[in-house]
Amino acid sequence: MSNDSACGGSTGNGLFSGMLGTSDIIFMILACAAPMGVLAGLIPLALAFGNGVGMPGTQLAICLVMLLFAVGYVRMLPHVRNAGAFYAYIAASVNKEAGLAAAYTALVAYICAATSILGALCYFLADFTSSVLGFATRWEIWAVVSIAVIAWLGFRKITMAAKVLTVALLLEVGVIALIDVLILIDKGFAGLDFSSFSPAAIFAPGLGISVIYAMNGCIGFEATAIYQEEAKNREVTIPRATYGAVLVLGTFYVLSTWCLILAISPERVKDVAAADPGRLLTTISARYLGEIGGEILHVLTITSLFAAALGFFNNITRYFFALARDGVIPRHLGKVHPSHGSPHVACALLTLIFIIVVGTYALAGLDPLLNLATSLSSMGAVGLMLLLAATSLSIPLFFLRRSEYSLGKTVAPLVGGILIAAATYLSLTNYSALTGTSLPAVNNLPWLFLLTVAAGWLHGWYLRKRRPDIYDRVGSTQIEEKDGPHPASLDPAAAATA
After folding, report:
1. How far apart are CA 124 and CA 262, in angstroms?
2. Which regions in the chain score pLDDT beneath 70?
3. CA 274 – CA 324 distance, rounded (Å)
4. What is the predicted pLDDT for the residue at 277?
5. Are 82 and 474 within 8 A, CB to CB?
6. CB 98 within 8 A of CB 318
């Protein structure tokens, strides 16, 4: 029997264990990254306004930085058995006030990312019915439908969402991989150009912009720890899923971006991408797959965005669950459905939040792509980058306090944290490049994270002074280790004998 088939335990007040294997978690995490959306939306902008031909080399470097983070991240698993991920790690490494500040920041960042994806999803659904099917629909209708379907899947067993995300991801990655292969065959060995990986190309003007987009493409892989309570043999499954997600994302982005450059030519790629970045991928796909290729990509963009929204929905509800179980927010939000093992009350709350945020933009008559998606996507990305840097820098503190020193426990996460912090600084100083607008109302949104950090810190201070019983539990509720999966996670026959 493989390690992944060994089931973890169930908890009396926790999520169902033994539900997810390595591949399930990898697919769920990769779906959050929306690789099709990144390749179609962010990469052309990096090619046009960043370091151009050096983008694949930049992506390779960022992948290595993410691996440094992952090395320390997975070393924390034996010590912090909690679905709170960032929140629990920072609470254990720094203090509980910092942990709550991280939790509040994570919730705001994830909600911004999820609702921005919903906006883009509704835009492309309305555009698809108009341009392909020939009849117009309002994006608000698609918002209602999308939120309802996502909420229903989030309410069901996590394995159902995992299956949906797996199918969506395999479709989009499969088509892009086919285009990559056709480009490589077309160019032949003699037509391969490796200048994208040379120091001169990587450190060309525009490197800062490319670093921002490369980082944004990797955001989401760190959520593997959120699912450790529902994983099979979590101390094996979660590290495999974390490393696997980084390596698959890195390989996908590096190879596909390099192939796009080869399809255009390194000499012309910057000008061609700048001329029409929004249609760069569809133009190249139409060249290699015919006109139907553009329609296929249109459909896969929709499925990619839907998968990303569903993935973030699951991430956020488990953050609510972890905070509620620790007593930080109303405990009712920590209830687990007896049949599905989902944090169903948290699902209901998040559905309401989605309705309020998206509904506010709809009532204001704003555009789902230009206003909703643009204003919130960059804020979500920057918030998660802040958390990545803070978490990576906090891990060495945890082990130093235990007098444990090693390359994996202290050096790797420290170096990774410094590099991620530098990338975060670049994102904040070039924030308008992320949003694509000069509107102060949009470009000043990251300042709101100061309020979330302050609110979390003050909440922690209040708990320490007035509710020490709750303060002691912040980030420390542990997953109980038992012998088998929760009976409700099995088929009916197995459950009857469990």
Report:
1. 28
2. 1-16, 82-84, 159-161, 222, 477-498
3. 47
4. 81
5. no
6. no
pLDDT of residue 367: 86
Please choose, from the candidates 325, 326, 333, the residue with its C-alpha nearest in 3D space to the C-alpha of residue 353: 333
| Angle (CA) 210 211 213, round 5° | 65
Structure tokens that stand for 139 in this block:
């994006």
| pTM as predicted | 0.82
d(CA 457, CA 424): 21
CA dist 328 → 11, 451, 472 (Å): 19, 18, 11
Distance separating alpha carbons of residues 230 and 7, to the nearest angstrom: 9
Among 323, 318, 320, 317, smallest CA distance to 470 is for 323
Domains and CATH numbers, the chain: 15-471 (1.20.1740.10)
Strand partners, 20: 231
Q: Let me know: does 42 contact 273? Beta carbons within 8 Å.
A: no
Look at residue 223 in the predicted model and tell me its pLDDT.
Answer: 73
Distances from the Cα of 211 to the Cα of 109, 215, 371, 434, 444, angstroms: 20, 6, 24, 11, 21
CB 479 within 8 A of CB 15: no
Alpha helices in 15-54 (DSSP H): 22-33, 35-37, 43-49
Q: Torsions phi, psi of 231, nearest 5?
A: -90, 155
Q: What angle do CA 436, 441, 445 make, to 5 degrees?
A: 85
Which residues 6+ apart lie within 8 Å of 107 measured at CB? 316, 319, 320
Sign of the dihedral through C-alpha 408, 410, 414, 415: negative
Give the CA dihedral 51, 54, 57, 63, nearest 10 degrees. 30
> Which amino acid appears at position 246 of this protein?
V
Question: In this predicted structure, what is the pLDDT of residue 484?
Answer: 42
Amino acid at 115: T
Q: Is 51 helix (H, G, I), strand (E, B) or coil?
A: coil
Instruction: Give 203-271 as a 3 state SS string.
Output: CCCCHHHHHHHHHHHHCCHHHHHHHHHHECCHHHHHHHHHHHHHHHHHHHHHHHHHHHHHHHCCCCHHH
> What is the residue whose two structure tokens read 């694509």?
436
Q: Which two tokens stand for residue 72?
A: 């320390």
